[in-house]
Amino acid sequence: MTVVTRFAPSPTGILHVGNVRTALHNWLWTRKHGGRFLLRIDDTDLERSKEEYVDAIRADLGWLGFDIDGEERQSARFALYEAEFAKLKAAGRVYACYETPEELDIRRKILLSRGLPPVYERKAADSPVPEGVAPHWRFRLDHDAAIEWVDMVRGAQHFEPKTMSDPVVLRADGSWLYLLPSVIDDIAMGITHVVRGEDHVSNTATQIQMFAALGATPPAFAHEALLVGTEGKLSKRLGSLGMASLRDEGIEPIALAALLARLGTSDPVEPVTSLAPLIEGIDFARFGRAPARFDEGELALLNQKILHHTDHAAVADRLPVAIDAARWNAIRPNLMTVAEAAEWVAVFDGAFTPAAADEADRPVLTAAAAAAPAIDWSADPWHALTGAVKEATGAKGRALFLPLRRALTGRDHGPDMGELLPLIDKDQAVARLSAA
Ligand code: GLU
């Protein structure tokens, strides 16, 4: 069996971290099994769907590196939905209803006040639609067929259709609700695995009967626990955090993928530099039932760790030309983001006057300025420089290294000086030592 999955966002907004997590899990699972990953644009809501969001969704998936094997659009498939709906109607599996939301609300309250579950009572099911009223349509659940499936994350699931309301599938204004078109498409597109958030579990229960009513075997389902913020709930920030703002903060797509692939699973988050090990490692059996906690601080740290072993070639197109592979390797352990690398260009090549040195450091700097011009920069200049200064002044340890680091880089901290100094232009280094 070829695995076929779909990521099915509604283009009514940008993708946020939670959607991306669902896309990632679908994509990883599909790539692991050599299947086909489809992007299905759920744009049945013509008013709220926007082309700019469709473009943004594609761009974000591209940025993340999730290649797609096909794209479908629900708005182009209404004829198919009508045809399948007609079959269900002929089979008596959908029926017209005409209660107003107010009437339904009153019925719900009455049932609740009697201690009964607020399930739709099918009052309109077998009565004619009153003159002049546009009905909405419900799918008739088969009360005698218990709903069961083995969820790849949640295990055995069981629903009693009697305890569920017949879902509305077509509104009075002729617009489709999500449930039925999704099932029709999953059948038509040969979807084998549906991976989505656990907020869809009860939808799945009704959809399983829709698959059966349309003569199809349902796909396998994996409902993942929701993603929550550090405070333990679905925060506003998390619900709106998009890829553009993460990119602006210097987050690498691989860092986001590395975190989202493992959060809420029994596998550790690892600082991988490509998607390959994440593909290899995905296993729904290792996904937990508890909400997965997303922590932006953890993401920033992981991003930093990943940069520390990211090759120059992977980021070269985003680096100033002056940052070649050797310079990148020297500075990457000190970077939080790729953009920060630009700040090091001045340290390597720039003419800058270091801040005035402490008086106590004067002898070290004077000795360094005197020794530097004669040092062979192509060998191990840091070793030669510190050796000469130590011999001339007797300084050692921090009293030796810190004033030199400050004068040469303008900073108190940074990469290993042994690695850094040969990469700093020699004339600049001599000038800095003399000026300090
Ligand atoms: N458009 C639906 C959503 O975003 C798709 C759910 C599904 O994967 O079936 O919730």
For the residues shown, what is the average pLDDT? 95
How large is the radius of gyration? 31 Å
Q: Structural class of the secondary elements?
A: alpha/beta
Helix content: 40-55%
Number of separate helices: 19
Please give the CATH architecture of one domain.
Answer: Orthogonal Bundle
User: Hey, roughly how much beta strand do the residues contain?
Assistant: 5-15%
Q: How far apart lie the N and C ends?
A: 71 Å
The count of DSSP E runs of length 2 or more, i.e. the number of strands, is: 12
Provide the spatial order of strands within the biggest beta sheet: 1-2-3
For the record, the CATH class of one domain is Mainly Alpha
- What overall form do the CA principal axes indicate? elongated
SSE inventory with pairings:
Layout: E1 4-7, H1 17-32, E2 36-41, H2 51-64, E3 70-73, H3 78-90, E4 94-97, H4 101-113, E5 136-139, E6 147-151, E7 155-159, E8 168-170, H5 179-188, E9 193-197, H6 201-213, E10 220-224, E11 227-228, H7 236-240, H8 243-248, H9 253-262, H10 276-281, E12 292-293, H11 296-308, H12 312-315, H13 325-331, H14 345-349, H15 362-371, H16 381-393, H17 398-409, H18 417-420, H19 426-435
Parallel strand pairs: 1-2, 2-3, 9-10, 11-12
Antiparallel strand pairs: 4-5, 5-8, 6-7
Helix pairs in contact: 5-6, 9-11, 15-16, 15-19
Bound molecules: glutamic acid (GLU).
The site of glutamic acid (GLU) has 8 residues, from loops.
